[in-house]
Predict the structure.
Amino acid sequence: MRRRDLLKAGALVAGLAVGGQTLEGTAHAVPGAAARISLAGTDGYITIPGRAPVYVFGFLAVPPEKSVAELTAAYKGKAQHVAPVLGLGQDQDVHITLTNLGLVGRPDLVDSHTIHWHGFRTPATVFDGVPEVSVSVPIERRFTYFYRPHDPGTYMYHCHFEDVEHVQMGMTGIVFVRPAQDGSPTLDPLHRSTSYAYNDEDGSTAYDRHFAILLNEIEEREHDADEQIQEFIFTDYDPQYFTLNGRVYPQTILPNGHPSLPEQPVSALVQVNPGDRVLLRLANLGYEQHAMQLPGIPMKVVGEDATLLRSPSGADTSYITSTLYIGPGEARDVLFTAPRFNPGARVSTDARGPHNTYLLKNRDFRRLSNRGVPGLGGMATEVRVYQTPLPAQTVVGETYA
Ligand SMILES: [Cu+2]
């Protein structure tokens, strides 16, 4: 297939771009049409080993047909962290309705919420979610944001009202945009996938499975102060817990929607078959830089901050690394090829059978513990390579119990 044919095929599928994902913890959207996503903002609690539940603010997906009163009765105080993963299509019309349900734990606090799509080029200030120059959503009100994303890649979204506080409190999630090239056969005869990270025109960003993982930190004194109607001084910021999708290891390897984590439904487990090309969509909405490693598997960085790594003249500027640096507010698209299953190496077994395990982890050992709880903790998760093949992935971050 020549490049022009590939582009033509890409243009065809653009009209059929699929909207939001349907797995637990992701938003409701109608495939094949404009994406209509309904989110609510409220407060709640998440679970971290070795301490009392952590007070958070967060977004959650709610049924779009319900009234503000019905949503308040059903979902107030049931925030989730991280927010639902939003998967959108290039040039797709996207309507995201945000309803502010108020706070159960802080009825004195009359904060509004907004949605700010970080790194996204929006032509309309009114939909940018920066309250000082735009609008915000007061308690028991709703507002519909409109976007038409033109640039594929991995982004993040967060509340921008009292943003340093509301971001740390948990109103954070990943949003990604599939390229128009999706659905075109790859030019690489070794890969049959028709999913791509970008409009690369050569198949170099094709992947078989993809996973969206948000890096974050928890400064418990800030959360506790918010719960106890106290002030936290952010220059004292020195977080105690380090999370992937709002969970610390070993929570990170529990499947999506695990009953022990009702307010942290998004898993960070990476389950793959030997030879799979795997795309990691990573973003950092903490306030510190993180250095991530995947010992035993080289990582190829193909995108940074929703931009394909190419020079202005089109030269490939992707790179292979053992250590991925990712600063606050930054996103990375990382490809790796899963190794073959090696029965001679250490083999573990779960419900899906024997597998080799690789750790995706922070390089800093201080970020690999849960503050006194023995054993590995913090910002780590597992890549499991199975002997018996898993079925094809149907949604981003799919886990197999
Ligand atoms: Cu907010």
User: Anything to note?
Assistant: The longest strand covers residues 35-46. The longest helix spans residues 3-14. The chain has four helices and 23 strands.
